[in-house]
Specification:
The protein has 125 residues and is of the alpha+beta class. The chain has three helices and four strands. Helices cover 38% and strands 26% of the residues. The longest helix is centred in the N-terminal third of the chain and has 18 residues, at 16-33.
């Protein structure tokens, strides 16, 4: 139907195969423009330097502006496990520094299986 609101409605004859081809190409084009969200991972240690911290923060900002989620993993090595509260403080600093473009999903939690670490998820606002 070319003009369904007219009286009588106006219809045209067309090639159905060509119509199906155009539908598929439109669908393919719309899929190409969509962004698949990914879960990126940022790993760091408790004794991270100030410069390294800034680089990681800049990279996290880049991921968040691309609408990706970030899993931040803080490795605890050796006796650092006893001072997990310092690790939690570092995680809170990351959340505070990225609070303008991200929010924390759930709470930062300490893992016990395998390597000891603290993990949290950041999602874009």
């Amino acid at each position: 139907m070319l003009a369904p609101n007219e009286d009588p409605p106006v219809c045209g004859i067309m090639d159905f195969g060509k119509y199906l081809y155009e539908q598929k190409t439109r669908q393919r084009e719309s899929k190409r423009k969509q962004h698949q969200t990914e879960v990126r991972e940022m790993r760091m240690k408790m004794k991270i330097g100030a410069g390294d911290y800034e680089v990681k923060l800049r990279k996290m900002r880049e991921f968040l502006t691309e609408k990706d989620r970030i899993r931040v993993t803080l490795w605890l090595r050796g006796r650092e496990v006893v001072h997990a509260d310092l690790g939690m403080r570092l995680m809170q600093k990351i959340v505070a520094d990225l609070s303008d473009i991200a929010r924390m999903e759930g709470e930062a939690r300490q893992t016990t299986e395998g390597r000891k670490s603290i993990q949290m998820m950041l999602v874009p606002r």
